[in-house]
Amino acid sequence: MTTGVRRRMGVEERRQQLIGVALELFSRRSPDEVSIDEIAAAAGISRPLVYHYFPGKLSLYEAALKRAAEDLAARFAEPQDGPLGARLLRVMGRFFDFVDEHGPGFSALMRGGPAVPAGGTCSMSTASATCALIDSVRQAAYDQILSHLGVPDPPARLELVVRTWISLAESTALIWLDGRRVPRAELETQLVQDFAALVAVSAAHDEEMGALLRRALADEPADGPFRELAARLATLVPQGFQADAP
Amino acid sequence: MTTGVRRRMGVEERRQQLIGVALELFSRRSPDEVSIDEIAAAAGISRPLVYHYFPGKLSLYEAALKRAAEDLAARFAEPQDGPLGARLLRVMGRFFDFVDEHGPGFSALMRGGPAVPAGGTCSMSTASATCALIDSVRQAAYDQILSHLGVPDPPARLELVVRTWISLAESTALIWLDGRRVPRAELETQLVQDFAALVAVSAAHDEEMGALLRRALADEPADGPFRELAARLATLVPQGFQADAP
Q1: Higher pLDDT pick, B118 / B33
Q2: Shortest alpha-carbon distance between residue A147 and chain B (Å)
Q3: Which residues bind DNA (chains A, B) (predicted)?
Q4: Chain A residues within 8 A of B239 when measuring between CB atoms
Q5: Which domain holds residue A192?
Q6: ipTM of the shown complex
Q7: Are residues B111 and A126, on separate chains, in Cβ contact within 8 Å?
């Protein structure tokens, strides 16, 4: 259905185009700094026409955020084949791709985001759409990890380790974005090893976590990220103790 | 200065009393659920008199939050004597005391808090008083840790480890509050060991971090939390590899 030079878009198609344009702009600069005029110009339509599809910047921001959240959650999906460390490492690669593509928008979102209603967000009694989206992505990450570990009904200590590791991954990505002073490939491997390290620390207090750790490490290859860490720790930590101990 | 049965309070004294009463109420239930009427009743004064001292619940909440933030930051202060692990363990004990005392208020705050202005908070361009307070407490924790490590000008990797560990401590406390399913003493030790583990993982990638780790571990006693972890890992991780490896 083309009318002359420009094809006329259907309502849903136009909405999707605007969401894509907005997400692109919200990703490259802090969403607070992006105006509706700019979005209209980038989409090649008038400002009133933007308002025809979205009542305001907030609703467009929420739609863009929803697409970004679905995109990120989709990147967590990983076939359940091969060693666990390599699986998690591939997911970390896709996570940092996402963070890289949506840098300023990701930072603004994780620091509170502009889609925060008056009177509070993410507190227990006033859940906003934004908070619900962030929590849904965290939950998707959590579910994926438990599924790969093969533990559908996790003990409290495992839930704690997985959820706190997710917050560690978020803050690692945020700090990386602020200047990119450590190579992202190092941080991807580091986060995989951090996961193993946090499980190992918990396992030092609890036999159930110990059994889980041994099972998770069972099919790690010699050059996998877990084994590499264990080998390094085995030399590094005892050496540290021996070299400088009084 | 007593007038009959009840002593008349000065303005600043009354303000401080109201802040204390409000903090007590905000700590025991989600701040969204606490009304000005309730604060007035608990302080033994009329609702209009509360408004005489504070224009609204938000300003009273912010004052209570400020007192809580100063209280928490003060608990980070620790003499620079003895092994590092034991120092951090004492701070973790005081941190969990604080979290225990202010449970629901701490949860609500860390999930966004009610003191969030319309249009966003904690995003880079719209810092609210609440976000600034949370960030000031994180910064106080960060400064304390660097001061104990004796590294006033930290390399990027150390800054990353310390800041991400602080977010790990926050999320560990939040998850602990949600059901208290793991003993807090275990989590206090675990967080100290997590810190050493995150430094060790980073040290596996970087010699500067390795040197820092060796220095930090130099005066650890045999029964300190770092050495206990190293001993457990030395048995746990290699055993895990050997027992189940193909």
Answers
A1: B33
A2: 21
A3: 35-54
A4: 214
A5: 74-244
A6: 0.87
A7: no
Q: Is A192:A225 a contact under the CB 8 Å cutoff? A: yes
Q: Does B179 fall in a domain?
A: yes
d(CA A160, CA B181): 10
Write down the pLDDT at residue B221.
87
Which of A170, A172, A217 has its CA nearest to residue A196?
Answer: A217
What is the spatial distance between Cα A160 and Cα A166, in angstroms, rounded to a whole number? 10
Whether the Cβ atoms of residue A106 and residue B87 lie closer than 8 Å to each other:
no
A-B contacts (CB, under 8 Å) = 224
A103 domain residue, yes or no: yes
Q: What is the phi/psi pair of residue A178, to 5°?
A: -85, 70
For residues A139 and A72, is the Cβ–Cβ distance under 8 A?
Answer: no
Mutate to test the interface with A, among B205, B215, B223 (most CBs of A within 10 A): B205
* Contact between residue A17 and residue A43 where contact means Cβ atoms under 8 Å apart: yes
Contact B28/A at CB under 8 A: no
In degrees and rounded to multiples of 5, residue B6 shows phi and psi of -100, 135
How many separate domains does chain A show? 1
Instruction: Decide if B2 is inside a domain.
Output: no
Amino acid, res. B140? A
Per DSSP, the three-state class of A38 is helix
Pick the residue with more confidence: B214 or B191? B191
Report how far residue A69's alpha carbon sits from residue A41's, in angstroms, rounded to the nearest whole number.
Answer: 25
More confident residue, A118 or B133: B133
Q: Are the C-beta atoms of B212 and B151 separated by less than 8 Å?
A: yes
Residue B194 · residue B168 · CB < 8 Å: yes
Query: Closest Cα of chain A to B10: distance in Å?
Result: 32
Q: Radius of gyration (Cα) for chain A, nearest Å?
A: 22
CATH number for B118 = 1.10.357.10
Residue A118, pLDDT > 80, answer no
